[in-house]
Amino acid sequence: MKKVLVPLAVGFEEAEFIGIADVLKRASAMGGNLELIIASLDSELWVKGANGICIQADCSLESVDTKNLDAIALPGGFDGMNNLKNNGTILSIIKKLYNDKRIVAAICASPIVLNEAGVLSAEFACYPGCEVGLKGQRLEKAVLVRDNVITAAGPATAILFGLELAKALCGEEIYKALYEGMLVPLSRA
Question: Global pTM?
Answer without folding.
Answer: 0.96
